[in-house]
Design goal:
The complex is a heterodimer of chains A (477) and B (294).
Chain A (H helix, E strand, L loop, with lengths): L7 H9 L8 H17 L3 H14 L18 H11 L8 H9 L31 H14 L4 H5 L9 H7 L15 E5 L4 E8 H4 L4 H10 L4 E4 L6 E7 L8 E11 H9 L2 H11 L4 E7 L12 H15 L2 E5 L2 H19 L3 E5 L1 H5 L10 E6 H5 L10 H9 L7 H10 L3 H10 L3 H6 L15 H12 L5
Parallel strand pairs in A: 2-3, 5-6, 6-7, 8-9
Antiparallel strand pairs in A: 1-8, 2-4, 4-5, 5-9
Helix pairs in contact in A: 2-3, 5-6, 10-14, 17-18
Chain B lengths: L4 E8 H5 L6 H7 L4 E4 L6 E8 L4 E14 H13 L3 H13 L4 E7 L4 H6 L9 H15 L2 E5 L2 H25 L26 H10 L7 H10 L3 H10 L3 H5 L22 H12 L8
Parallel strand pairs in B: 1-2, 4-5, 5-6
Antiparallel strand pairs in B: 1-3, 3-4
Helix pairs in contact in B: 2-7, 8-9
Classes of the chains: A alpha/beta (477), B alpha/beta (294).
């Protein structure tokens, strides 16, 4: 309970002591007004508003609505309603989901707040006070029972994507949709077509991999299972599959759209620390192959000093899967790894037996024509173009180029450029928006409140002005 | 500063009833991670929701989903796959249908900590053999991009879910780094330092910036950029000129014939900007569709 000293000096202090750039100015203004009214009328509500004001001043994070203020001490239902009314915010109906959220997860409030300023649970609950931690488990069980009879999160389950206009960039970024499959706009011309059954597939192993002493196991295993393989120097990757026509007169060699990078756990650890891991992932993403696979050989007893903790390594592996679209397969020893490669090779051979392969030239390949696993026609690149790294990315879109242009301005980081190009995908769109402004001042501030994507920061007046000058000045002198 | 996005784990009711789900709530509370216990559309699944205040996204489900099963259940599942070829696709289709969206599914096998130990759990009387397991792994990978994770006890499961929660939380920033405008032109990536515009004084910064902007086009060098800005000193000058063109074709070729001044003694075949470059620039400044290719 915040002790309230009621000397007249402290009455004035909270009002005058304004923090610069307070995040909750919009709410403070209201509460202050009510405080002043109460003061003028001599009503008892002055104490309520003073308490609320003090509480609000201490809170460093932004609260958008009155109902958000419920988490603060001194903000009860009435005052929050008043705030919402003034801010013209429509209250969302409180679904059972929301209640449960506040009940079960007791840990989503600011650590710094004292235990007594725990989230007010009384939205729909009978309980008016927060139970002390000891009772937490019990509360959970009780609520669990309640939950079993309600149907779950109606809002989210019945209407999974709430936004009417989904921006795919943002949805992909947040993980709401999987990386969108690129649709092929037109049929590319194939340099060569290998009809079903006219080619054979061979496992291709990188030099460095094959010469490892432990790789003897792999090579033996492959031979034992009658898997054809050859060893070459690969500029990127450790394993891939080459395709050659059965007809020895046709001199062309393609590769399947799969590549494996092998990593031992201690190697992974070192490469994360020195940054090679990120660089390698980047290079793999650029090489033109869609299906990127990390084969991680885990040694369960890694206790060598200087290595990342098992938890950190595991997190890195999960991150690679979730955030970076790699397929990660963990194996425990060289035999398991060999098994994996044998089975994979057998499956690929069986699968592509009845498929037609079209070999594309470099430019077409860089347009990223993708096929689905079960399609009868697949697009592949030649081994040489892969290994020589000549696969370039497709030409940029207007939006991407615009982003590139904006990045030449100091202060424009990737995420505020992205936010800006979401709002104005082309320079013309930006210019048109400028034309809609009624005066220069409005133009200069037009972009200042655009929020970055992964943080809540705004673009700001300076950058907004700078961009306005760039796009609207009739002379740069 | 408040986070722009927040992630909440949604855990199916049935999970916390099981012996291997007992410590979940406690471990989540200890780590102060957000979660909800709900009756999910598919039992024994876990997914996450994300909210992004900056873009007014209230709360949306992400595509990641964990499907939990004990190793016995998994063995049963594999054995059914041997007789019913559509078993996996039926399962995944059901999940997508119930969730009304396409999920990226990861199977979590409870009761063992690795694929190696899982295969050791096969007994002589099991309906499946270890090569059946090998085959299922590959099929799950090739057809569905489905990864298998393992959790021996409830503590391991809790850690696993927490690590996924963390991954989903940091994913947007990681994806940001991989996004264009970095991902194209990597091989011809010119090293330009961004230019700070001085908004108070008039000086050379805007002019330098305009020149540097033009040089972002591939095959646009310093001299070509200079030649263009000699004619069209500002973006406005160029845009106005495009507006005044009688036909679209005129606008496309507006810059084609601009002579590029080269140093004496340098022999080169192209001394003009050329029609292709001219068209690229025209496209950049007159397109209304961000997805047009340059």
């Amino acid at each position: 309970m915040a002790s309230s000293s009621s000397s007249s000096i402290s009455l004035i202090k909270p009002i005058r002591k304004r923090r610069l750039n307070s995040p909750n100015d919009h709410i403070m203004v209201l509460v202050k007004e009510w405080y002043n009214d109460a003061k003028a009328n001599g009503t008892q509500t002055i104490h309520c508003y003073r308490k609320a004001l003090r509480s609000l001043e201490k809170y460093p994070l932004r609260l958008e609505t009155g109902s958000d203020c419920r988490i603060l001490h001194g903000f009860g239902e009435k005052i929050c309603e008043m705030i919402d009314q003034n801010l013209n915010i429509n209250k969302k109906p409180i679904t059972p989901t929301k209640t449960l959220y506040k009940t079960v997860s007791m840990s989503n409030f600011d650590n710094r707040q004292k235990p007594n300023t725990i989230i007010n649970l009384s939205d729909n609950d009978e309980d008016k006070t927060a139970p002390p931690p000891a009772k937490q488990a019990k509360l959970t069980n009780e609520t669990k029972k309640i939950k079993k009879t309600c149907s779950a999160g109606p809002k989210l389950f019945n209407n999974p994507t709430n936004m009417t206009i989904q921006s795919t960039t943002i949805s992909t970024l947040l993980g709401i949709v999987d990386s969108p499959v690129k649709t092929n706009l037109s049929q590319p011309k194939s340099v060569q077509t290998l009809k079903a059954g006219s080619f054979h597939i061979t496992l291709c192993i990188d030099n460095a991999e094959a010469s490892r002493p432990t790789q003897k196991i792999l090579l033996e295993h492959l031979t034992k299972n009658s898997i054809n393989f050859d060893v070459r120097k690969l500029n990127i990757g450790d394993f891939l599959w080459t395709v050659r026509p059965n007809d020895p007169d046709i001199k062309v060699e393609a590769i399947l759209d799969y590549i494996i990078e092998r990593k031992r756990l201690d190697d992974l650890s070192k490469s994360i620390i020195d940054g090679r891991y990120n660089e390698q992932k980047f290079r793999l993403k650029q090489c033109g192959i869609t299906n990127l696979i990390y084969l991680v050989e885990s040694l369960k007893n890694t206790n060598a000093p200087g290595i990342l903790t098992p938890a950190a390594l595991n997190q890195a592996i999960v991150n690679t899967q979730v955030a970076e679209d790699f397929f990660v397969r963990e194996v425990s020893n060289p035999v398991e790894m060999a098994n994996y490669l044998v089975t994979m090779t057998k499956h690929l051979i069986a699968h592509f037996k009845d498929k037609t392969l079209h070999i594309l030239n470099d430019t077409d390949m860089s347009n990223n024509y993708k096929t689905s696993y079960n399609d009868s026609d697949h697009y592949v690149m030649t081994f040489d173009s892969f290994n020589s790294g000549t696969i370039k990315s497709k030409p940029p879109t207007v939006k991407e180029m615009f982003a590139r242009v904006l990045m030449q301005i100091a202060g424009m980081s990737v995420d505020n450029v992205l936010a800006l190009t979401e709002a104005y995908p082309t320079p013309l769109k930006l210019l048109e928006a400028y034309n809609q402004c009624s005066n220069e001042k409005e133009r200069k501030l037009m972009l200042s409140s655009i929020k970055k994507i992964t943080s809540n920061r705004k673009l700001g007046k300076v950058l907004s002005t700078a961009i306005e000058m760039l796009f609207n000045n009739l002379s740069y002198q | 500063m408040s986070k722009a996005h927040e992630v909440t784990a949604w855990i199916d009711l049935n999970i916390i009833d099981k012996s291997w789900g007992q410590s979940l709530t406690k471990e989540f509370d200890d780590k102060k991670a957000k979660y909800l216990i709900e009756s999910m559309p598919v039992p024994n699944t876990i997914t996450w929701s994300i909210s992004n205040i900056a873009n007014n996204i209230d709360e949306e489900f992400v595509c990641q989903l964990l499907l939990l099963m004990t190793y016995e259940q998994f063995f049963q599942f594999v054995s059914v796959c041997n007789t019913n070829k559509n078993n996996i696709s039926d399962l995944f289709q059901t999940i997508n249908d119930k969730y009304k969206s396409k999920k990226s599914i990861t199977i979590v096998i409870i009761g063992t900590n690795s694929s190696l130990n899982l295969s050791k759990l096969l007994t002589r009387s099991s309906l499946i053999k270890s090569y059946d397991l090998d085959n299922i792994y590959i099929e799950l990978q090739l057809q569905y991009n489905c990864i298998i994770k393992y959790a021996e006890k409830d503590h391991d499961l809790a850690l696993l879910i927490l690590s996924f929660t963390k991954a989903i939380t940091v994913a947007p920033e990681k994806r940001l780094k991989n996004l264009s405008p970095f991902s194209f032109h990597v091989d011809t990536m010119k090293q330009y330092k961004p230019i700070r515009i001085d908004i108070d004084q008039t000086n050379k910064t805007l002019e330098q910036l305009w020149k540097q902007i033009l040089q972002q086009f591939s095959q646009m060098g310093m001299e070509q950029a200079q030649a263009i800005i000699n004619q069209y000193g500002t973006i406005q000058a160029l845009v106005q000129a495009y507006k005044q063109c009688q036909t679209e074709n005129d606008a496309k070729l507006l810059l084609a014939d601009i002579q590029v001044r080269r140093g004496a003694g340098v022999l080169t075949t192209t001394r003009k900007i050329g029609p292709q470059m001219s068209e690229k620039i025209w496209k950049l400044f007159t397109s209304t569709n961000g997805n047009d290719l340059l």
